[in-house]
Amino acid sequence: MCGIVGYIGKEQAAPIILDGLAKLEYRGYDSAGMAIAGEDHQINYKKAVGRLKVLEELTHGGETMPGTAGIGHTRWATHGAPSDVNSHPHFNKEKTIAVVHNGIIENYIYLRDYLMKKGYEFISQTDTEVLAHMLDYYYKGNPLEAITKVMHRVEGSYALGVLFADQPDQLFAVRKDSPLIVGQNEDGCFIASDVPAILKYTRKVYFVENQEVVRLREDHMHFYTIDEEEIHKEPTLIDWDANAAEKCGYEHFMLKEMYEQPKAIKETLMPQNNPRIRGDEITIEELDMTDDELRAIKKLHIVACGSAYHAGVTGKYVIEGLARVSVEVDLASEFRYRNPILEEGSMVIVISQSGETADTLAALRESKARGFKVLGIVNVVGSSIAREADKVMYTWAGPEIAVATTKAYSAQLIALYLLAMKLARVNNTVTKEEYQKLLCDIKLLPDQVELLLNNKNHIQKFANRYIGAKDVFFIGRGIDYAISLEGSLKLKEISYIHSEAYAAGELKHGTISLIEDKTLVAAVSTQEALYQKTISNMVELKARGAFVLAVTNEDNKAIEKEADYVIYIPKTNAYFTNSLAIIPLQLFSYYVSLGKGCDVDKPRNLAKSVTVE
Ligand code: F6R
Q: What band does 38 get if pLDDT is binned at 50, 70 and 90?
């Protein structure tokens, strides 16, 4: 979704804002804009359709917009097409109040009509413009009063940066249901939608809560409630490496993040200062549950979106298989409206990289409102889901910038494996030997992932043959179906090639009619007990002209007779194969996208963190 950055301090604001927006461009990239408090109580602004670089060029890297206070925005359009007029900042008529916004104002039509009756004119199709005019309507020289009055009238979600021309020594940050942080260093104060935007400048951040307002000045910040009461907040020190938000020589963030997977897995298994494997025991301290309490879990509901949902589908197979606890997996956007049956003894697990996905957050709130405990498996420390969940198990993948997730997904799998093993241990559903084997195999995963990544050249060659593909199918059974779901999503989202994932046995119930001569089908076959079944499906497909790429275990040489091309993964526990089989599929998608000349890190129409429904 949209990204917001603001700065007030001793330095020039525009270059800092542009730099921060570049780190947030993954949140939206169809247009960008900036407003800087200028001399003589004027606000200077520039907006540009297209990527941030258009705005950078227009302002010579910010040089043409001098001033030490300002706000900026990179947009992912919701209301109104990407255009100069719809880009942020938005203004009141006199251009004395500038607003940047992430979120959706749900009652904007009502408010717009109300303001139009009062003589206000609207020039854009956005919901945001209503905020600028409403602020104007209420502004009588006291910004805090005007902002809180507006907050009382608007419905929906918003993270705002606000600048008043006649108050150039202060900036305002406002939040309800859209992510927002503020930070401080010795030279100034910052506003940002997400930590990476300001990581280069400060690690001292404050999480703005719902319906709070922050007044930022050069050397201090004050926090207020919607009723203008001042509140005290403690800062959080972020220990992410600033390089995590830089490409560090890689051509794309996605490639860098794929290469960070061994580290993400290691850190999620053994977080610094708090390892989750201690000797023979799995310790998930964050759960804060006794073995008896864990044993009392009768059912788990895993709720998530996109790739996080796919991790959840794998989690279902692993948890049910190992711990014999029943698991239901839901898409968050469905869960919240289907009146789910949550019975006594159920626990809800929400999975989210960003911790800000609107549907997942809503599912969490729905579950809590019904009195159920929610465990969040979350990557972004201090995000909304992390703060609102009853318990948080962090995936320590570090900041993920590429829109297509790779390392966070891999870390989510690890968190779910650990949970499955812990439950299996307390429920006594695996033998001592099986448990030891699981421990041994899970620890080998980082090196095995590394090995697969280092074998990328032949996948690149293979991928280059498919840059012209029209349709690709991914099939598998059991856990292999879950891998197929993720493999297919990776390919379509970054290469724009239509692809579908099917449970291998299901294809012949309709979809097989789409198979034409040379259609690529990736058959994932890592479950020994199902090798033969998947081979039968491959044979059916080949008979209809498909070209079959098999992804399988290194000992399954028999598959070579039926497959046209085989990618082997090292031997691991049957429950952990997803962590390995996904690597060549990620690489395949990456190289197809690269070969087609697509924007790998910022695929069209997408945004990293989906904070609207
Ligand atoms: C795909 C992808 C998305 C996210 C989904 C959920 O590569 O990244 O499908 O997985 O939008 O996002 P989070 O995990 O932030 O809740």
A: confident
Residue type at position 87: S
CA dihedral 77, 82, 88, 93 (to 10 degrees): -120
pLDDT, tens digit, 9 for 90 and up, residues 84-143: 788 899 999 999 999 999 988 999 999 999 999 999 999 998 889 999 999 999 999 999
Pairing status of strand 212-216 against strand 171-176: antiparallel
424 pLDDT band (50/70/90 cuts)? very high
d(CA 244, CA 263): 12
Q: How many CB atoms lie within 10 A of CB 81?
A: 11
C-alpha dist (Å) from residue 552 to 247, 567, 579: 32, 6, 13
What tokens were used for 328?
Answer: 């239901």
Q: Is the CB of 609 under 6 A from ligand 1?
A: yes
Looking at residue 10, the DSSP 8-state letter turns out to be S
Reference 320, options 468, 249, 419; nearest CA is 419
Q: Which of 27, 329, 357 to mutate to test the pocket of ligand 1 (most atoms within 8 A of CB)?
A: 357
> Of how many residues is the chain composed?
613
Q: Is 573 in the pocket of ligand 1 (CB under 6 A)?
A: no
Q: CB–CB of 492/603 below 8 Å?
A: no
- Whose CA is closest to atom 7 on ligand 1? 404
Atom of ligand 1 nearest to the CA of 609: 15
193 lines ligand 1 (CB under 6 A): no
Q: Is 478 in the pocket of ligand 1 (CB under 6 A)?
A: no
Amino acid at residue number 511: T
Centre of ligand 1 to C-alpha 606, Å, is 10
Does the beta carbon of 379 lie inside 6 Å of ligand 1? no
Write out the catalytic residue numbers.
2, 608
Measuring from atom 4 of ligand 1, which residue has the nearest CA?
306
Q: From the centroid of its chain, how far is CA 525?
A: 28
